[in-house]
Design brief:
The complex is a heterotrimer of chains A (about 200), B (about 240) and C (about 90). Chain B has one domain. Helix content of chain B is about 70%, strand content about 0%. Chain B contains eight helices and no strands. Chain C is about 75% helix and about 0% strand. Classes of the chains: A mainly alpha (about 200), B mainly alpha (about 240), C mainly alpha (about 90).
């Protein structure tokens, strides 16, 4: 940590990304916290239903999705560090890799959902699957927006019309959003797939 | 752009219509109309019908007032758009969208309130299921019309984020808050699939959170509009 | 962004390896390597550890970033308690 620790100003000066985007991220994470609360309360009320439903999930999809997002997130983190050094060409390449390694998440999700639906399991099958489809669906919407953000950032990285600190700010802000998509999935993975009942 | 004096007459009056709308709508549509919170979709038709028959007078008054004050939301939205014109060019599509988003929202408030009013017009002559159907229909419309208001929320958010002033008229967090509210509304898409639980029209997510985050946005944004109008008059 | 360069020296690849290992461990425990209650509790705690690593090393946040860092820490604590509470009260 650096020596500049005059509390408020220092924290704003070194905050990665954009304070407005961080506000959005925190608000969004709070909405997901309500999702988790609703799910946990439902599970506590009907553990047997939740366990039989959970057993219908393929844990390998959950793990694969987690590893995909973690890998993509690692490239995103590397992209932000590279941007901090001002190596914009390499930042752009890393952003492209971030997107390419992240895209299989969409494919995996599509396969998983269609397999469920092929077995007649849908949004209204039971409470567990209501939450499963809505939470993973809303999460997928975040993922899709994240892919669009990455495409914009690729242009931003090498857009010489913009000052370097502006480029860095948006790459860090977009990166923070992408990491949020990642960490929300980590909770969903544990909550939906891994809570085996005794 | 703001160097030449701007005619801000009526702006404050129009801006004050936003909080007034929220207050009147809450009391008349919400409390008198038994919509805050609504009857659960699980509630038997007889329960809804009995309420409408026994309280026909107050439901009618509530809906008449709600319809009378619905345009206040649009008037407020236009005042926000006038302030937005001082941030980005008048002809910007963002300003246009902020304006029509507010105007369209008025329609999505007026039409469903007329359905509740219909249910309260001669409830003694209507079968229970018909009153329930009108009640359902009104709720399906008011909830699923969310995207109309999202247009306004996104436009206002994106517009004020473009503010280049050292201290912008609308703080970044509030602009992003509005954009977040517009996204949160998407949850209403699953509302028709549920008759109970968090995603039903009376549930924690699709009623309490969705309505409260929107109703809170209006007065908070209005407070910043009043500050902004003062700054525009001082030529900032 | 500071002149001192990246605030966190830990290489991204090392963090990634820890995150991936924790994910596979949680999966293996849930698939039967451990009794149910231990596996589920471990899955929740591993998720919390992973999220904290992401906040520190991927999101690049430090405790000097107030109020953001304390807020996110509180969020993580609340979510972890919600999941543990929901599981253990069933």
């Amino acid at each position: 940590m650096t020596a500049t620790t005059a509390p408020d100003r220092a924290s704003m000066a070194t905050l990665p990304g954009d304070s407005g985007v961080w506000f959005f991220i925190v608000a969004d994470m709070c909405a997901f916290a309500v999702f988790f609360l609703v799910f946990s309360a439902g599970r506590a009320a009907e553990p047997a239903l939740y366990e039989t439903s959970r057993r219908m999930l393929d844990l390998r999809f959950g793990l694969a999705n987690t590893l995909i997002l973690l890998t993509s997130g690692a490239f995103m983190a590397q992209a932000a560090r590279t941007a901090q050094r001002g190596d914009w060409q390499r930042t752009r390449t890393l952003l492209i890799v971030t997107m390419i390694t992240g895209l299989p998440f969409g494919l995996s999700k599509a396969l998983e959902w269609s397999a469920k639906m092929a077995h007649g399991v849908t949004l209204t099958t039971n409470e567990f699957f209501t939450y499963y489809f809505i939470f993973t669906g809303v999460h997928f919407l975040h993922f899709a927006i994240g892919i669009a953000v990455l495409i914009v950032l690729m242009r931003t990285a090498t857009d010489t019309a913009k000052p370097a600190d502006t480029r860095l700010r948006w790459i860090e802000a977009g990166g923070a959003y992408w990491h949020m998509v990642d960490l929300l999935w980590i909770v969903l993975f544990a909550m939906l797939y891994l809570l085996r009942a005794a | 752009m703001s160097a030449a004096s701007v005619d801000t007459r009526y702006w404050r009056f129009c801006a004050s219509m936003g909080p007034l709308f929220v207050l009147v709508f809450y009391l008349c549509w919400g409390i008198l109309g038994h919509n805050f919170p609504p009857f659960s979709p699980d509630a038997p038709a007889s329960e809804v019908a009995t309420y409408f028959r026994e309280n026909a007078g107050s439901v009618r008054f509530g809906m008449v007032m709600a319809m009378t004050f619905a345009p206040a939301y649009g008037v407020w939205g236009y005042s926000v758009a006038k302030v937005l014109e001082q941030v980005i060019e008048k002809d910007s599509i963002v300003v246009q969208l902020a304006r029509v988003g507010a105007a369209w929202t008025v329609i999505t408030l007026l039409v469903p309130t007329s359905f509740w009013l219909t249910a309260a017009f001669r409830p003694e002559a209507l079968p229970d299921w018909m009153i329930q159907m009108l009640y359902d229909m009104a709720w399906l419309l008011i909830d699923l019309a969310y995207a109309v208001t999202s247009v306004q929320l996104f436009a206002i958010g994106a517009g004020f984020l473009a503010d280049k002033r050292a201290v912008p008229f609308v703080p970044k967090w509030l602009a992003w808050y509005g954009i977040w509210v517009g996204f949160m509304f998407v949850l209403e898409c699953v509302m028709p699939y549920f008759r109970n639980g968090a995603f039903a029209r009376s549930g924690i997510l699709n009623f309490w959170i969705e309505f409260l985050i929107w109703m809170a946005w209006v007065p908070v944004l209005t407070a910043y509009m009043f500050k902004a109008i003062g700054r525009i008059e001082r030529g900032e | 962004m500071s002149a001192a360069g990246p605030r966190h020296a830990a290489p991204v690849a090392a963090i990634w390896a820890v995150l991936a290992f924790a994910s596979i461990a949680g999966f293996a425990l849930a698939e039967g390597l451990a009794p149910a209650r231990i596996a589920a509790t471990a899955a929740i705690l591993l998720a919390a550890v992973k999220i904290n690593l992401i906040m520190v090393h991927y999101m690049d946040l430090t405790w000097s970033h107030t109020p953001l860092r304390p807020l996110l820490a509180a969020w993580l604590a609340v979510v972890t308690l919600i999941l543990l509470g929901g599981y253990w009260s069933a």
